[in-house]
Amino acid sequence: MNILLLMPLNEPFDVVINAGKTPERSKLNSKTGIKKIDCVYPTGLLSIASYLKKHLPDANIGIVDCNVEITPMAETYGCSGFTKAEYIEHCVNVAAKKCPNPDLIGLSLLFCSNFQDLEHFAAALKKRWPESCITAGGHLPSAIYRRIFREKSSLDAICFGEGEIPLLELCQALQRGERNRFFSENTAWITAEKLAHDPSFVPESKLINDLDEIPPFDFDLLHAPEAYRVSSRYFFVIESSTNLPEMLIFSTRGCPYHCVFCASQNVHGHKVRYYSTDRIKSDILYYSSRFGIKRFIFYDDHFLSNKKRAIEILEFVASCGLRAEIPTPAFFVIDDEVACAMKKAGIKEVNITIESGNADTLKNIIGKPGNLNHAKRAVDALHKAGITAISNILIGLPGETKESIDKGINYLATTDVNWFQCFVTAPLPGSRMWDICEKNGYFSEADPYMMDFKKCVIRTPEFDSEYIEHKVYEMNLYLNFVNNYDMRTGNYAAALKLFERILNTVIGTHAFAMYYAALCSKALGLEEKYQYHKTNYYAMLERFTFWQEWRNKFMLEDLP
Predict the structure, then answer these.
(1) Is the pLDDT of residue 331 over 90?
(2) Which residues touch 559 (CB under 8 Å, ≥6 apart)?
(3) Longest CA span, the chain
(4) Which member of 388, 439, 468, 559 lies 3.0 to 4.6 Å from 396 by CB, making a disulfide possible if both were Cys?
(5) Is the dihedral of CA 354, 358, 363, 366 positive or negative?
């Protein structure tokens, strides 16, 4: 049996290709002019593939991540040298080499931005392999399966929730020649026919209770495993100059909380399930010896939820001479003991996802399990251990007001957080926030499926979309540059490091990063670097009215 697992481009093709039209605000690949694409191990597909291989040892399984393909194409043909159809056809050709004549094709879709290109990929696959069973799964299809099937769809079925057990059952049904009967009876699978026959049909997820049943991943199933060796370039929060071979690990699944913006419960449920400590240790040794992995990025939200387990794993990583990262730990668990263990495992920076500086917003709108006192304790513990504290902040939640947003920003300006990642609230399908927006008519004229964390698609009686987008950028410039914590406390070397990271890995035309990097260089006596950043700053002002307007807004003085 041939099984092809495919991940479409994570962002709309048009957004990636046209990013060069706004270089002052876009994360660009300097060689190609398209949006920088960071390839991260497709852990969901790797998990499914490992589980299927365990139960179907004779199956030929191939994984194709289309995010890997677009940058080489742009390097060869230029950012305007190929169309979406040509790009998708290229990806299908790559898939055909990795997994010829697939009996089953599974598309993995995580983000709203996948929706725009979904049918283009599905139709191209159906055209190439009309007899194949083409399915989709992941966070997005699990939440919007009704909309997908209301429109023209080349998909045969959608998997609800986690994919390991449903896809295994589907493969076994295909082998028995019982495809139609299986889809009609299995409650984890959704088809257009099933919804037409019973509009009230509600699918049921089939979760693996014991995560240790999933075998370790086989990276050889990927068509380009070398593309993921330094995948932390995706994260601003991880210092990756060492270029250590690395991988993402999700050591838990599920979340017991009910934050307003989260939709993960649709896939993983509310009960937290853990890989055993012994299993995590054995996996670390396996990946290190088999694939040369040296840095392990624990990306699950609840890695720290069992404090004893987390510390034991971190200490094991350190004892093996390896490194760990926890990009987004639950801040309400971090204390001196946890921070010390993190430091021993080589962690230098973490992103504590505070979300808001307004206590009322945290408690009564978001429903966050932690509070601002927990956040302060975490920052203090991290700084004591010598770890940089970064935090996600978002605004534009239904229920917020302009006054409550300003109150939160004013509080954040008094904290010791080293850097803030400021985002527009994204109402993910399947979240409570999506339901609130839909019920109250809060979606703006923009297509809500085109949202990202910069584009606002919410409009409430308190604010419109344009206000939130402008306010988010203003907040970013104020908290990270004008009122930068490290500059306020005289730690110019630390501030300069992050300003230059913005220029080198995020936006190379960021005038504020140049201005404040110049000030830090002057304070550190780095005259050559000062002149370099000063020259570039004035060049950006001359080139972009965008930066002139923000310079005037914050009344930046001329550099000496």
Answers:
(1) no
(2) 515, 518, 519, 534, 537, 538
(3) 77
(4) 468
(5) negative
The Cα 516–Cα 160 span in angstroms is 48
Buried residues in 193-222 as b, exposed as e (16+ CB within 10 A): ebbeeeeeeebebbbeeebeebbebbbebb
User: Which of 234, 266, 145 lies closest to 195, judged by CA?
Assistant: 145
Distance in angstroms (rounded) separating the CA atoms of residues 224 and 401: 47
Separation CA 512–CA 509 (nearest Å): 9
pLDDT, tens only, 8-62: 998 889 989 998 888 887 888 888 889 888 788 899 999 999 999 999 999 999 9
- Reduce the secondary structure of 478-542 to three states and give it as a string: HHHHHCCHHHHCCCHHHHHHHHHHHHHHHCCCCHHHHHHHHHHHHHCCCHHHHHHHHHHHHHHHH
Give the H/E segment covering residue 85. Answer: helix 84-98
Q: How far apart are CA 523 and CA 509, in angstroms?
A: 23
The identity of residue 431, as a single letter, is S
Q: Cα separation of 159 and 142, whole Å?
A: 7
> d(Cα 359, Cα 416) in Å, to the nearest integer?
17
Place of tokens 């302060």: 376
Instruction: Outline where DSSP puts E strands in 275-412.
Output: 295-298, 323-325, 349-351, 388-395
Q: Which of 366, 353, 357, 369 is nearest to 427 (CA)?
A: 366
What's the DSSP call for residue 149? H
**195 sits in which H/E element:** helix 192-197
Residue 247: CB atoms within 10 Å: 25
The answer to whether 196 touches 145, Cβ cutoff 8 Å, is no
Nearest 5°: phi and psi at 109?
Answer: -130, 120
Phi/psi at 201 (5° precision): -55, 130
Q: What is the pTM of this model?
A: 0.93
Task: Give the model's confidence band at 232: pLDDT under 50 very low, under 70 low, under 90 confident, else very high.
Answer: low
Q: Strand 133-137 relative to strand 157-159: parallel, antiparallel, unpaired? A: parallel
Provide the pLDDT confidence category of residue 234 given band limits of 50, 70 and 90.
low
Task: Single out the residue of 4, 534, 45, 37 nearest to residue 248, CA to CA.
Answer: 45
The SS3 assignment for 545 reads: helix
Bridge partners for 349 per DSSP:
388
Contact partners, residue 277, CB within 8 Å, separation at least 6: 309, 312, 313
Residue 409 CA, chain-centre distance (Å), reads: 24
**pLDDT greater than 70 at residue 255:** yes
**What value does the mean pLDDT of the chain take?**
93
pLDDT score, position 525: 98
Under 8 Å between Cβ of 345 and 315: yes
- At residue 91, the pLDDT reads 96
